[in-house]
Design goal:
mainly alpha; 63 residues; elongated
Amino acid sequence: MFALVPGFLTGLSLIIAIGAQNAFVIRQGLLRQHVFLLVAICAISDAVLIFLGTALGLGQAIA
């Protein structure tokens, strides 16, 4: 439970920051082109990368 809040805030920081991926998602959403597919791909890829970096310790292996 102690790590829940920092983990939540770290995940939220990935969503709030307007980077290339988020700008592309916003643009496609405004154009209404492939919105569901694009959001699903981005969410799954973010979840996989977070999992690899935390659960499997890939972050320490790279550092």
